[in-house]
Amino acid sequence: MGSRASRLLREEEIEEIKKETGFSHSQITRLYSRFTSLDKGENGTLSREDFQRIPELAINPLGDRIINAFFPEGEDQVNFRGFMRTLAHFRPIEDNEKNKNPSATEPLNSRTNKLLFAFRLYDLDRDDKISRDELLQVLEKVDVEQKMSIRFLH
């Protein structure tokens, strides 16, 4: 008998996600298992609160911005496909990936898409500019986190 993740995720869905994100079959099933464990409502979607229960995000000074990246504007839930699209931006860059099919769209983990993704983390008001105030907010969060870490170590 297969795992819960492999039973609920159809093979054709896995193949589509592989093509779109570049993740392997085993990575997709492992991430689906993690996704379902985070889905406390058991409705096939994750809420912001589900993400906030992840300890690594809870302590990250940019955790709220990372969490927001999973949610298109106006949405308060993300399904597995959207979850995987966002995670694909964190995959390492593979320079030869685009050369496989020159007519294919640029991979989600391309340098350009990674830069756009990172830019959106800092562009709080989504005006396609990073204002001085937006940059200062990030720097202040990181500075506070560093000071807390230093105090903890001493």
Automatic annotation (TrEMBL):
Cytoplasm as a keyword of this entry, yes or no, is yes
> Which terms does the record give in the GO molecular function aspect?
calcium ion binding
Q: Which UniProt keywords apply?
A: Calcium, Cell membrane, Cytoplasm, Lipoprotein, Membrane, Metal-binding, Myristate, Nucleus, Phosphoprotein, Protein transport, Repeat, Transport
- Give the similarity note: Belongs to the calcineurin regulatory subunit family. CHP subfamily.
Supply the Gene3D superfamilies for this chain: EF-hand
| GO BP | protein transport
Q: Looking at the Swiss-Prot or TrEMBL record, what is one Pfam family this protein matches?
A: EF-hand_6
Where mainly found? membrane
Q: Which residues form the EF-hand domain?
A: 26-61, 110-145
State any GO CC term. Answer: cytoplasm
Lineage here is: Eukaryota, Metazoa, Chordata, Craniata, Vertebrata
UniProt protein name: Calcineurin-like EF-hand protein 1
Q: Where in the cell is it found?
A: Cell membrane; Cytoplasm; Nucleus
